[in-house]
UniProtKB/TrEMBL annotation:
Residues 10-102 form the TfoX N-terminal domain. Gene3D superfamilies: YgaC/TfoX-N like chaperone. This is TfoX/Sxy family protein. It holds the Pfam family TfoX_N. Residues 105-142 are annotated as: Disordered. Residues 108-133 have a biased composition (Low complexity).
Amino acid sequence: MSEFVSSLHEVFERFGRIEAKRMFGGHGIFHEGRMIGLVVAETLYLKTDAENVAHFDLLALPHFEYLRAGKMMQTSYRQAPADVFEDREEAASWGRLAWEAAMRSGHAPKAAKTTKAAKATKATRTAQAAKTTKAPRKAATR
């Protein structure tokens, strides 16, 4: 993980806990299981939608774009303002805007991977349920 990505934990300390995961040749930035940002080439982009985009438009912050099949694709992530890195309260405010957009997007957080212990517990419950379930009666033979 780059020093820049590692520093984001401090940048967003007043907003809340964030997690960085490698993806898309960069890092996804998550809060409470939802992707609120993207880091590509040491640049932070934050999630936008119709309700918060005016804040980004006001500062003329560019979209994250990528080339796909010879065509430039524009995403719902916009570059974070420089103030985010200077002022922890500003970072919290912008982080909240991005998180609210992620919440409105309707994409539920991914479920945690099932651990071996959880699988074992489920197997035990299934076995116990099988023991307590009555077997169907055999039809009387004539």
